[in-house]
Amino acid sequence: MITWLPLVLGTVAPLLLVFALWTILRMLTISVEDEEVVLVERFGKHVATYREPGLMFLPSRILPWVALHRVSLRRDFLQLSDLHVADREGTTVIVDVWIDYRVIDPIKAEYAVAQLHDSLRGLVMHATLALLGRRTFSEILCDRSELGELLKNDIRTDTERWGVAIELAFLQKVSLLPEVSARILSAIAARLGRARAELQEEGRLAVATLEAQTSVKVAALTAEAKGQYPLAVGRAMALLGKEPQVLAAYNELYRLSLIRPHRATAFIGFEQDGLRPVDALMIPQTTASTSS
Asked: How are beta strands 45-50 and 36-42 bridged, if at all?
């Protein structure tokens, strides 16, 4: 026991000394971190502000009537979820509001308002209800960025009195109650069906009009083509008239082309013997066979 007791005391004593010195140092100094401000109060009154990061020597902090308040200057956010707002037409709109803010005056933020976060939440909620209540659901849905800027401007005066600067404000989500959404979707479907029917009817009318115009043009072109045919034949016959032999041969060929052997009997060449084709037609068939 006597052998290892000095060893234990020699090990524990330096540790206790270091711990005591560290405790005394902590009691006599304050550490200020980056993006942070330390406010010093004496008897409930603000007496000093430490803004520079580092270790500051403040022996008076061990006194019971001295208190320290740390205020963060970092960027913080506030989110309001499922906020029910009645728009101008009485439709219940559910929105989520996102606010990014930063403390720019720690003294005002600490002493000008109690419970800064809760006060800011109430202010944003009231401003959102007043702002969106003057607009319809379609306007809220289409102008979300603009509404965020308007909300930021509406609460700027109050937040500046609290030493807070609003850096960003926007509507994160916009939705409706389920039954309201169902009615709106039904109305949209009905409008789409009506628009589709009107479009189809306009298409049918356009197709019918185009077909009628095409028929008129085709009929005009066909009539013009039929009118050109006799003129072309007349010009060709005029040219053939200058050549009597060619015209006679053409007439003969045309007369022969009109004969249909399977439908009629033709008598050709009887004029030279004094027998007309009509007379030849009246000769009995048996007599014609005997004569041959």
From this structure: antiparallel
Beta bridge partners of 79: 98
Tokens of 136: 């319809």
- Domain identity same for 197 and 237: yes
Is 129 a member of any domain? yes
Residue 124 lies in a domain: yes
- Cβ-based burial of 15 (10 A; exposed 0-12, middle 13-18, buried ≥19): exposed
Burial-class residue 140 by CB neighbours within 10 Å (0-12, 13-18, 19+). buried
Q: Are 127 and 97 in contact (CB under 8 A)?
A: no
Number of domains in the chain: 4
Strand partners of residue 45: 42
Distances from the Cα of 275 to the Cα of 69, 109, 171, 269, 271, angstroms: 146, 139, 114, 9, 6
- Is there a single domain that holds both residue 148 and residue 171? yes
How far apart (Å, rounded) are the C-alpha atoms in residues 158 and 176? 30
Question: Is residue 8 in a domain?
Answer: no
**44 & 114 share domain:** no
pTM: 0.57
Helix (H) / strand (E) containing 152: helix 144-161
Helix axes 178-241, 244-257, angle to 10 degrees: 130
Residues 83 and 67 in one domain: no
Burial of 158 (0-12, 13-18, 19+ CB in 10 A): middle
pLDDT at residue 89 tops 50? yes
Nearest residue to 240 via CA among 227, 226, 228, 254: 254
Q: Report yes or no on 38 lying in a domain.
A: yes
Asked if 85 and 164 sit in the same domain, the reply is yes
Tell me the pLDDT tens digit for each residue of 231-278: 887 888 788 778 888 778 877 787 777 766 655 555 555 555 555 655
Structural domain including 45 reads: 21-72
